[in-house]
Specification:
With 355 residues, the chain is an alpha/beta fold. It is 39% helix and 15% strand. The chain is built from 14 helices and 14 strands. A hairpin with a 5-residue loop joins strand 13 and strand 14. Helix 1 packs antiparallel against helix 4 and helix 2 packs across helix 4. The radius of gyration is 20 Å and the shape is globular. 45% of the residues are buried. The C terminus is likely disordered. Its EC number is 3.1.3.16. It holds the Pfam family Metallophos. Its cofactor is Mn(2+).
Length: 355
């Protein structure tokens, strides 16, 4: 009971975007490893479930996702990887999801994305963030060790195959995925790499990926894979979709993207996929969370942005409860103040019409 109490306290602390102690991260990762090591490379997930795409350290948008989709454990979640990098809060994002996994192991499934990698995180932000926030790379090491234990894919009710990237020319069946030794750094090539890096493309057969890893795969490849494994569709993440989700190949492949206003500048909406007990689909579309603006203004190095903080604080009771700016209006607001467009997330609630 004491362990659960400590874990609940840590979850609440992380929900407030507050760091937990390094010693607590170590203990959390040890508990997570015990759970994840028992999971399959093709982890079975039962419906109803809500399927989510990339998060990329956008912590306040993860909170918005939970607001619109329901909290854990009331809602059963499957996250398809890329929890870290690029956003400002990769540490808090990943640790919150990991803590929820330890607390409610049957209500949240985490599979590996191409950014759950030592090499990638040293380039795209997670390594530097751990060093900055904890003063050493120890927490980064704890987390990247856990990456090696994350499942490579999931199967919902035996009918919907979920994977971060896509298919591999080395893999024809789910049983072949089950034989992969996943407890390693993501290789530069081969089937494990392909599952995390590949993309669908309007072509036939296999093509060279411009990413430099994985493959492009066509509709015929998908048809063969789905038929061989008696599945209805493939659900994946990995690619920014401005509308939040995108169907491919006559609705046999679906891309879900769950990081709104990606990198705080792309202006896209995000989506999550709700599947009921009959695998009926409903998409929830959401925009970026306004609350992140507070901390962004506090920490920005731009004097113009920082000087706006008192004004935004004054307007927050209105903005937080009533208004929702369009992306063009938000960018226009910054232009009126004579500096370049800001990488702020979109406020979510209020509509403003400009003549």
């Amino acid at each position: 009971m004491a362990e659960i109490s400590d874990l609940d306290r840590q979850i609440e602390q992380l929900r407030r975007c507050e760091l937990i102690k390094e010693s607590e991260v170590k203990a959390l990762c040890a508990k997570a490893r015990e759970i994840l090591v028992e999971e399959s490379n093709v982890q079975r997930v039962d419906s109803p479930v809500t399927v989510c795409g990339d998060i990329h350290g956008q912590f306040y948008d993860l909170k918005e996702l939970f607001r619109v989709g329901g909290d854990v454990p009331e809602t059963n979640y499957l996250f398809m990887g890329d929890f870290v990098d690029r956003g400002f809060y990769s540490v808090e994002t990943f640790l919150l999801l990991l803590a929820l996994k330890v607390r409610y192991p049957d209500r949240i499934t985490l599979i590996r994305g191409n950014h759950e990698s030592r090499q990638i995180t040293q380039v795209y932000g997670f390594y530097d963030e751990c060093l900055r926030k904890y003063g050493s790379v120890t927490v980064w090491r704890y987390c990247t060790e856990i990456f090696d234990y994350l499942s490579l894919s999931a199967i919902i009710d035996g009918k919907i195959f979920c994977v971060h990237g896509g298919l591999s020319p080395s893999i024809q069946t789910l049983d072949q995925i089950r034989t992969i030794d996943r407890k390693q750094e993501v290789p530069h090539d081969g089937p494990m790499c392909d599952l995390l890096w590949s993309d669908p493309e309007d072509t036939t057969g296999w093509g060279v990926s411009p990413r430099g890893a994985g493959y492009l795969f066509g509709s015929d490849v998908v048809a063969q894979f789905n038929a061989a494994n008696d599945i209805d569709m493939i659900c994946r993440a990995h690619q920014l979709v401005m509308e939040g989700y995108k169907w491919h190949f006559n609705e046999t492949v679906l891309t879900v993207w769950s990081a709104p206003n990606y990198c705080y500048r792309c202006g896209n909406v995000a989506a999550i996929l709700e599947l009921d007990e009959h695998l009926q689909k409903e998409f929830i579309i959401f925009e970026a969370a306004l609350s992140h603006l507070r901390s962004l203004l506090r920490t920005t190095s731009c004097e113009c942005c920082s000087s706006l903080f008192p004004l935004v604080q004054l307007l927050f009771p209105i903005l937080d409860g009533v208004v929702s700016f369009s992306f063009s209006l938000w960018q226009g607001f910054s232009s009126l103040l004579s500096f370049s467009p800001l990488p702020w997330p979109l406020p979510n609630k209020f509509s403003v019409w400009i003549p």
